[in-house]
Amino acid sequence: MAAAADARFYDCRSRSPCPAPAPPLAPAGTMSMMMGGGGHSAYTNGYSGKGNTGPTAMLAKGQRVQFWHEADPVHRNAPLACPAPLMGCGPQLRQSHGWLEGVMHEPFNPQRYDLSKMDTWPLVQPSQRILFADRCSHRTPTPLAPKRFPLWRVRDVTSSRPPALSLLLVRWGGEHPVGAGVEGDGGWGKFGCPPCDEYVSAMVSGGVSCHPLLGGKDGRLCDFEIFNIFVRNSRDAFDMQQMAPWLAAMLQGNKKVSFWMLWPAEWEDAGGADYAGYVERRAMFCAMRACEAAGLRSGFPHPADLYEVITSKSWLAALALQPAAHLPAATLVSKGSVVNDPRRAAKHALAALSQIRHRSPFPVGPGERPAPSVVNKAGIWKGVVKLGWSWEGRFVLSFEGEEQLAARLTEMMSQPGCLASSCIVQEWVDFDFEMRLYFLPPEAWQPGMKLAPTKVECNSWAGFSEEGRPHTFRKLTEAMCLDWWQQDSAALQSATEQATSIGNFLLTWLLAMDAQPVPMVRMDFMISRIGPGKARVVFGEYCELGACCLAWEDGPPTIWR
């Protein structure tokens, strides 16, 4: 299969696998929001969206033309154009898609063209000024040899115009590739995680190349360009700040957008495959803000400020006093207080949780069990410790009592390489399983309009290990949820309605953080059945655009489109 894919790439027969074209989208489609919004004319630069058919007149040897260059992001050895081949050992910029300059290597007669016969295709000599290299090797970039292209991938220079979109993909370029993580109930699904090459490849083929305003209905409009900047470590991300004005000026599209396919973390760089794709969060967010200040907006996953708010998890404490948020009590504990006196830090954390819960009690109806947990009904002594900027369920520890909390705080704050200045302490929540709601708000979301989730998924955890870590993640179907709740469909419906209502408040709060609506966000809720037809819902966390879609196999393509 790999050999066939490589052959397909190098003989230019087609681009990455492309699903059947979706119906034309309204301008408020998610990909349009991610790439800058605007209507049809903003993308097509006045063109109808009909695919490129190629020259209809004879092409003479030596005649200047442009050819469409594309390289599937999953091919690590594919030739990529080097706009700045002498960038040294910093972040490496490569162009994978776009119209490039060349000349006809031999005369071409369009009347003799036969798509099924490669020897009738136009033979183009890429400009010797354009150097190519792959993303992996450190070999000196070189020009490409003459190459045959299908007719639709060649155009006369008089057809040249700025592309509708310039897309900068900020990708992982370290020694170890990011694993797709597709296996198992806790896996990312068939597309993999956003930093992996497989996800980027699918997003380009299924979201960009097939977008009716960028790739056209037949995938031949080619009205975009894609540049990739490969970041190997946090230093590379930091160095991007100085490059930002040059990057923004180099992109030629009518709209310019950056997609950040990395994970921000509060850790020093570490070698090994387990840490591929992680970048120290200050370096990453400084790079994002520098690009935004230069006019290169962040389209994926979110603008820097909002992305930092969501991934910091500090909102767990900031919203804990908001009854409409339905959050457990939470407080931030500084590293300094833990280092100086962990027992005192634990005592203050428990006192703060009690004060917050007293000020904002969870509603409890007649005959209902205490909320959000039975174990803390007489006072908060059980809960969890979390780190911000952590991913895939890592760095969550449970505790019982002040002594164990002090030990958990010390363990969390003293891990080698951890740069966190604080951690989050939350009260315990009783729940049966989690309900995950995927919202794709329309750009024209009107006040008073209640949004319904596009998809609802559920999962469970088997519990916590002796070390205090959650384990055994399992996806749940609706039938499995009903079996769990003794076929109480009314309770499950109540949980969904409550989570949707809470979700609408939380979406509005995100608008207070950034006036531009999020294209997509996943919200996780902890739900429990508290009686026939009755459910209790507690908000768990925001998950950024690009979060795992669990069993929703069509989730990523839905989001891209």
What does this structure look like?
With 561 residues, the chain is an alpha+beta fold. The protein has 14 helices and 22 strands. It has helices at 2-10, 30-35, 40-44, 197-208, 234-250, 281-293, 304-312, 315-318, 335-340, 342-359, 401-413, 478-484, 489-513, 555-560, and strands spanning 64-70, 80-81, 92-104, 123-126, 132-133, 147-148, 154-156, 165-172, 224-231, 255-260, 263-265, 278-280, 297-300, 330-334, 382-386, 396-400, 422-427, 433-439, 455-464, 470-476, 521-531, 534-543. Strands 1, 3, 4, 6, 7, 8, 9, 10 and 13 form a nine-stranded mixed β-sheet that branches. Strands 20-19-18-21-22 form a five-stranded antiparallel β-sheet. Strand 8, helix 4 (197-208) and strand 9 (224-231) form a beta-alpha-beta unit. Helix 10 (342-359) crosses helix 11 (401-413). The longest helix is centred in the C-terminal third of the chain and has 25 residues, at 489-513. It is elongated and about 85 Å long. The two termini are 27 Å apart. Residues 1-28 and 38-49 have low confidence and may be disordered.
Q: How many helices?
A: 14
Apparent shape: elongated
pLDDT average, as an integer? Answer: 88
Strand content: 15-25%
List keywords for this structure.
561 residues; alpha+beta; disordered N terminus
Task: Annotate the secondary structure layout.
Blueprint: H1 2-10, H2 30-35, H3 40-44, E1 64-70, E2 80-81, E3 92-104, E4 123-126, E5 132-133, E6 147-148, E7 154-156, E8 165-172, H4 197-208, E9 224-231, H5 234-250, E10 255-260, E11 263-265, E12 278-280, H6 281-293, E13 297-300, H7 304-312, H8 315-318, E14 330-334, H9 335-340, H10 342-359, E15 382-386, E16 396-400, H11 401-413, E17 422-427, E18 433-439, E19 455-464, E20 470-476, H12 478-484, H13 489-513, E21 521-531, E22 534-543, H14 555-560
Parallel strand pairs: 8-9, 8-10, 10-13, 11-12
Antiparallel strand pairs: 1-3, 1-7, 2-5, 3-4, 3-9, 4-6, 14-17, 15-16, 15-17, 18-19, 18-21, 19-20, 21-22
